[in-house]
Design a protein that fits this description.
alpha+beta; six-stranded mixed β-barrel; 29 helices; elongated
């Protein structure tokens, strides 16, 4: 009992050490569990939401639409639980200029169901549900009416831009027709699209660089009123996928098994079958056209024959009358009256030559008959010409049918191809990577501080330990006094850390996340396993340090422990050997120098602890500076143009005329911009594999006219980059990079994410969904967005060559259709405000689909999620620095109580004692800061480079002000600690402190 009471008394006396260890553990466990828990809660809530709404696991799209046969084939694939045929149509409407939307049929098989937020779901034809983004932008409400206009060319797929055959065939197989939706609409509900969880009212409204939508809005309509049997896509649910977390690798493996089966068998067979259906449909149309033409020609020929027969009868009647009259006259002049009677009783018999002569004479003598004969002959001639022309046209169609219908392509996509899904997953993964890295530093600092504190605690009880061991207590029993002390501090600190880690930090992160994404059903959850392991990790580290400190002391005999520890032998420090410097240092300065450098363990612990905390602060500020400068670097330095304006191909000429006539443009470059995909090439022809897989990036494909390749450098800063050490990159000289016909220039953001470098082979997908394998000639410095620049010639080589096999017999390369320059990059005159106003006015023009002001983008670019996490990390790092400095200062004072008492006896005033002690701590703090600043830059660079996010490359930037803030914060914490240490120095009693230990 006395042993226990003494142990408790010792614990109470060491309450400062207890608080220090508990606080370090609290901060470490909070960092370890907090960011993880926040991301995990977001992952779990979205996974539950996706399962509830039936978000598809696989989506299949085709360049020719999907028929009933395609849907039936997909249902037979092993591992497919459900298949839902989907119909959609792109429409336009007027909303402060022309806007586009996708009319999406609400599926009847429970897949991709919109989440109702307000109102009710549409049930009747003409009713629709819209997203909150549309409500915000349009100012409309439930009950409002809207009239839309279908696009002239119906979309064949909902997520990619695909091409039909050259004949524009989109209605195939006799009865398959493209989907058509009602055009007069009434809003009855507001819904959340499960494919896009972006919050239109939050921070995501500013992050337009993350937008992946091909249209401005999505309208959801019921099946009632939708016509057309051709499907734009098919969505699938995979067996067993719902049981896995959609963000885990196990889910991806489950889905991949099904996508591989579709790619391996169904895809190839149905592509061929679908093309054959198109050919058969075309042949049927030609046959039907020939039969219809033959019937019309036969009817026309019958009409002409009937008219000619009537004409001939009329002429023959006249011939007969004239012949009869002639015969009667001849008989009247004869002598035989009987002969006259006989002649008058019968029609004279004329030979064919005489009759034809009479017919011609009669027709020639009558203008009416002449005109009638000419009309009959002309009608017959025209009919013969029409028959010949129609037959020739049909034969030409038959010959061109096979070449005019391209090969059908299927695209098998998983959830990674959804822009909203991949953006959310990337954001959370990146934040979680920070949460996995920072606790390591906290753990190392916790072990160092625990070793320092517990080593001093054991050393203070040296004689007591010797007494207990001498009385027969086992070394383990004696060590348990300190082990239980450290364990209890870790458990209390860890418990409080779990509260902060699973409640406080996640609540803060989720508030920020909900400003970017809408996540219904979000709730905070506790992970017993991870929380227990988090505490155990720090318990093991702290107990290991405590065991080491106990072993170092208890390996001595009781007699040695009962005697005071011999003072450390005096030794010279390196500075003493530098006489010119040493001789000019005062007495107290020499004492301070000896105290700092003679006690190596204290030097290492203090400098290392301070350096670690300073590095954490610098690291957080480095990430913040890097993110803050992204917009300025991209839209001020890399993009030299002020305006990018894009239009539909049909409006490209009107758009260019509009921009040129406004008088605001000082220089411009016409280009073609398409939304495409960049993936690591598998070495084939680039037409295999899945679109939107984890090894792909959404890109903006920019084709440049051959005559203006050199002008690209005036609109975009072209700087080659190369990979460096520790994830860094080297940037080449501005203007040293040129676009040519030997390859494409890939943006650094996409190249970094895929591991692409100059000379690599990549698979490019253009705006029409055509894929080709391209060579990367260079990687260009680019931070926001993923631009891929290609020359006009190389574009034609990549994407026309695949169809050349089918079209080389029908048209030569010289006759191939030229690219439509649907975009303009321009430099504008005027201030940033006037440029922004001009761009806003351009967007209202009917010929403009999208206009972007670089000045506006540079000013409005934000990344609030990363900023919030950085603020959290800096705050926790500052708290750790405060605890570390407090622990080291108290340990320093407890080690030198006799020394401080001696100074007081020698006549030092309290302020002089304060200065004597605090000067050493400030010097050690400065040394730690000097070491921590570059260390923080290095760690910050490594962590920033590890943040692999779509369409973003983090070019590490640390502003001088950030170094000043980190140093000033650490020094401020050191000064704050002095306020707590000075009273401790004042309470030192020289008499009791200097009593002999014996």
């Amino acid at each position: 009992m006395a042993f226990v009471k003494d142990m408790l008394r010792m614990w109470a006396h060491s309450w400062k050490r207890f608080i220090s260890i508990a606080m370090i553990t609290l901060l470490g466990v909070a960092v370890l569990t907090g960011i993880y828990a926040g991301c995990r809660d977001a992952f779990r809530s979205t996974d539950r939401f996706f399962d509830a709404q039936g978000l598809h696991d696989v989506q299949v799209l085709s360049t020719a639409g999907l028929s009933n046969g395609d849907i039936a084939a997909l249902r037979k694939v092993n591992g497919v639980a459900k298949v839902q045929a989907e119909r959609s149509q792109e429409v336009t409407f007027d909303l402060d200029g022309r806007k586009s939307a996708t009319m999406q049929e609400i599926g009847t098989n429970g897949i991709d169901q919109p989440y109702l937020q307000e109102g009710r779901m549409p049930k009747k034809a003409g009713e629709i549900a819209v997203t909150r983004k549309f409500i915000r932008d349009s100012g409309k409400h439930i009950g409002s009416r809207l009239t839309v206009t279908p696009e002239s060319a119906s979309s064949d797929t909902s997520d990619t831009s695909d091409t039909n055959g050259a004949d524009g065939t989109n209605e195939t197989n006799g009865t398959d027709e493209a989907p058509s939706f009602p055009t007069k609409l009434t809003i009855v509900g507001v819904v959340l699209d499960p494919q896009n969880l972006s919050n239109p009212d939050g921070y995501s409204a500013m992050t337009s660089f993350r937008s992946t939508a091909t249209t401005d809005y999505t309208f959801f309509a019921p099946s009632d009123g939708v016509t057309g049997t051709l499907c734009t896509s098919a969505t699938l649910l995979v067996k067993g996928a719902a049981a896995e977390s959609t963000f885990d690798e196990s889910y991806e493996n489950t889905v991949k098994q099904v996508t591989d089966r579709i790619d391996g068998t169904v895809k190839t067979d149905r592509q061929k079958a679908r093309r054959q259906e198109l050919l058969d449909a075309g042949n049927r149309k030609i046959a039907d056209a020939r039969a219809e033409a033959d019937k019309k020609f036969a009817d026309a020929q019958s009409q002409i024959d009937a008219n000619r027969q009537q004409f001939n009868q009329q002429v023959d009647q006249i011939v007969s009358m004239q012949a009869g009259a002639a015969a009667a006259g001849a008989a009247a002049n004869g002598a035989n009256a009987g002969a006259a009677a006989a002649a008058g009783a019968t029609t004279p018999q004329l030979d064919e030559t005489t009759r034809e002569t009479m017919r011609e004479t009669i027709i020639a003598a009558s203008p009416e008959l002449t005109q009638a004969k000419q009309q009959l002959d002309q009608a017959q001639s025209q009919l013969n010409e029409q028959k010949a022309s129609t037959e020739q046209t049909l034969k030409t169609k038959e010959n061109e049918l096979k070449t005019s219908i391209p090969q059908v392509r299927w695209y098998v996509q998983d959830r990674q191809s959804l822009g909203g899904f991949s953006a959310l997953k990337s954001d959370l993964d990146s934040i979680q990577s920070l949460g996995n890295a920072f606790p390591i530093v906290f753990l190392l600092v916790a072990v160092m501080m625990s070793l320092t504190a517990m080593a001093r605690m054991v050393e203070e009880d040296r004689s007591l330990i010797g007494t207990y061991v001498g009385l027969g207590y086992g070394r383990l029993a004696v060590a348990s006094r300190y082990l239980l002390f450290a364990l209890l501090a870790c458990l209390i600190g860890g418990g409080l850390g779990l509260i902060a880690g699973f409640l406080g930090i996640p609540a803060f992160l989720l508030v920020v996340l909900q400003g970017m994404y809408v996540m219904p059903g979000l709730r905070l959850e506790y992970d017993w396993l991870y929380g227990s392991l988090g505490i155990a990790l720090f318990v093991v580290g702290v107990l290991a340090a405590t065991i080491y400190a106990c072993v170092q002391e208890m390996r001595q005999t009781p007699a040695s422990l009962l005697r005071p520890k011999a003072p450390r032998a005096g030794s010279r420090i390196l500075l003493e050997r530098i006489r010119p410097v040493w001789n000019r240092i005062g007495f107290l300065g020499k004492v301070t120098a000896r105290n700092i450098f003679r006690f190596k363990s204290r030097l290492i612990m203090t400098v290392g602890g301070v350096a670690g905390c300073t590095a954490l602060i610098v690291c957080g500020l480095a990430i913040n500076d890097t993110v803050a400068d992204l917009g300025i670097k991209q839209y001020r330095d890399i993009y030299q143009y002020d305006l990018m304006v894009v239009s539909d191909d049909s409006d490209a000429s009107a758009m260019r005329t509009k921009v040129a006539s406004d008088g605001r443009v000082t220089s411009s470059l016409d280009v073609r911009i398409e939304s495409g995909d960049l993936a690591i090439s598998g070495g084939g022809d680039g037409d295999s594999g899945k679109a939107g897989s984890s090894g792909s990036e959404s890109i903006q494909l920019v084709a440049v006219p051959e005559k203006h390749l050199s002008d690209l450098g005036e609109m975009v800063t072209l700087q080659p980059v190369s990979s460096g050490m520790l994830g860094t990159s080297g940037v080449g000289k501005t203007g040293s990079l040129k676009l040519d016909d030997d390859g494409v220039i890939v943006a650094q953001s996409a190249a970094s994410a895929l591991g692409v470098k100059a000379g690599s082979k990549v698979r490019l997908t253009n705006g029409d969904g055509v894929r080709a394998t391209a060579k990367v000639s260079a990687v260009n410095r680019n931070l926001i967005g993923s631009d891929v620049y290609v020359s006009e010639t190389y574009y034609a080589k990549l994407f026309d060559s695949k169809d050349a096999k089918n079209t080389k017999n029908s048209k030569s390369s010289e006759d191939s259709e030229a690219l439509t320059w649907n975009a303009v990059l321009a430099k504008l005159s005027g201030s940033d405000t006037s440029q922004t106003d001009y761009v806003e006015s351009l967007e209202e023009d009917s010929s403009v689909m999208k206009a972007v002001s670089c000045a506006h983008m540079a000013d409005s670019f934000k990344f609030d999620l990363m900023g919030a996490v950085v603020a959290l990390i800096v705050a926790l790092a500052g708290g750790l620095a405060l605890v570390v400095l407090f622990t080291l200062a108290n340990t320093n004072v407890s080690e030198r109580v006799r020394e401080m008492a001696t100074l007081k006896v020698l006549g030092f005033f309290d302020r002089e004692v304060h200065h004597y002690v605090n000067r050493e701590m400030m010097i050690l703090t400065v040394m730690g800061v000097i070491l921590g600043l570059p260390l923080g830059r290095l760690v910050g660079g490594m962590l920033t480079m590890a943040l692999n996010m779509p369409s973003l490359y983090f070019e590490v930037e640390v502003k001088p002000l950030s170094y000043v803030i980190a140093a000033a914060a650490t020094m401020t914490f050191a000064l704050l600690v002095q306020l707590f240490v000075n009273p401790v120095l004042d309470r030192i009693d020289p008499i009791s402190s200097l009593k002999s230990v014996e």
